[in-house]
Amino acid sequence: MTKNEEPSVFDNAREERRRLKREWRQYRRENRFCGRGVTGGFFLIFLGVLFLLNNLGIVPWEIWNYIVGFWPIFLIFAGINVILGRNIFSRIIISVLALAAFILILIYGLYSVGSPLIMGLPPQLVDIIMFMGNIKK
Hints:
By secondary structure, this protein is mainly alpha-helical. The protein has helices at residues 9-30, 39-55, 63-67, 72-84, 88-112, 123-133.
């Protein structure tokens, strides 16, 4: 191409592609830590609720004896995250599974220590919890 010729359609497309790549890299650099999975957030909320209930005297400290036994769940979530990758679909799946697991673990721990917060649950949920921890009636 000489100086007097206008750029071709291909040259314009090539420049536009380069510009979009630069903008995308800049966007990714600025938003690198945005949009991460919420599993860690659920875990922190789970721990915060437990500590709050412990400090208020609603739940005894022995609940930790029941909950610590579920530490392999975190390894399972990490493995699922590695297998599925970091797309939005896998983040949604892991987040839903983590929320369900944390709620069930919390209910299991509360039921195991005989917390008054758990009395009055539907019998079907109590059966699931008892099956989960092999608790005898």
